[in-house]
Specification:
- The structure is a single chain.
- The chain is built from 2 helices and 17 strands.
- With 317 residues, it is mainly beta.
- It has 3 domains: 2-37; 51-236, no CATH class; 252-317, no CATH class.
- A 6-stranded antiparallel β-barrel has the order 7-8-11-10-9-12.
């Protein structure tokens, strides 16, 4: 009888050990597969994680929110001090718009800059992102619009764009025919936005900023949109190349667009080309140029002298 009991105990022990080993093997496999996704929590950074390092690069992914400048962390030196500006860089992917609609956009973003403050990111409110004492950064975007072929009169397309601080995303009010926007929640430093571009609504209209007070932005042209409250964004374009590091060649297939805002807006001018006269054929705003590749005496260069967004008013030079 004792021998039978011992044998049963040994069998049960072996079965339990086998089951336990099998469970551990499954757990290890899961960790190998999922650890990089943070499913088990081993690779996740908590919301209040503080990274102590003199130099560090963060790569990650996330969902873009209304606030343009995303600062997921503030860097400190090895001793925990924050008396000096800390450099940062990061890269990620996010999607905006609704899936399978014309609004869907897929973005790859690269960011680099300085964090110049010890304040928590939540203190960097959208209405004060022009304060260079708090943040100074640049962002480069590769944006793909995949649904053009199905829903728009052109195939899927992509574009490369970039901006730097000051960057703002907020809500303000305008008056039709006036050239100001008022944001009662803002506390801008005077004229820190001058030279940047203000986009009203979903690129409804765009204007260049001439000056600003604490909560009033003055623009270079009057609003055509109806009076009311609108979401708006302020972006600041970057240079393409530099004086000492210019690009060797610029490849442009169809035309060169100058200005900001919608392509059919009053702020945009074009350099276009084609065979024959543009009169009655090519639509543009006054100040645009057209090159006739067919050539001919006094018919090679045309200037648009009249007619906003019309195909008439071209004069040969």
């Amino acid at each position: 009888m004792p021998n039978e009991i011992e044998e049963n105990l040994e069998e049960n022990l072996e079965e339990n050990l086998e089951e336990r080993v099998e469970e551990l093997e499954k757990t290890i496999e899961k960790l190998k597969i999922h650890q990089h996704l943070g499913i088990d929590g081993s690779k996740e950074l908590s919301e209040n994680t503080r990274i102590n390092a003199k130099e560090i690069t963060i790569h990650g992914a996330g969902t873009r929110v209304k606030d343009f400048v995303l600062i997921p962390f503030t860097m400190f030196d090895a001793k925990g001090g924050a008396e000096k500006p800390r450099r940062f860089s990061g890269g990620g992917i996010y999607v905006t718009g609704d899936k399978e609609t014309a609004t869907e956009q897929i973005h790859k973003v690269l960011s680099a800059g300085k964090v110049l403050t010890t304040e928590e990111p939540k203190e960097l409110v959208p209405s004060n992102r022009a304060d260079f004492n708090k943040v100074n950064t640049v962002q480069l975007f590769l944006t793909h619009v995949p649904q053009g072929k199905k829903l728009l009169p052109f195939p899927p397309f992509a574009f490369l764009w970039a901006n730097r601080t000051p960057i703002v995303a907020s809500t303000g009010t305008i008056t039709k025919g006036a050239n100001t926007l008022t944001d009662s929640s803002a506390r801008f430093d005077t004229n820190k936005l001058a030279g940047s571009i203000l986009n009203l609504g979903e690129l409804k209209e765009s204007r260049q900023i001439l000056s600003n007070t604490e909560n009033v932005i003055t623009l270079d042209d009057n609003w055509e949109a109806e009076s009311g409250s609108y979401d708006y964004e302020v972006i600041t374009p970057i240079f393409l190349g530099s004086a000492n590091y210019p690009f060797t060649r610029l490849y442009v297939a169809n035309d060169i667009r100058l200005g900001y805002g919608a392509s059919d807006g009053t702020q945009v001018r074009y350099i276009k080309w084609g065979a024959g006269s543009p009169e009655g054929v090519v639509t543009a705003n006054p100040g645009s140029l057209y090159l006739n590749i067919s050539g001919g005496g006094n018919t090679t260069l045309y200037i648009k002298e009249s007619g906003t967004q019309t195909n008439t008013g071209w004069v040969a030079k």
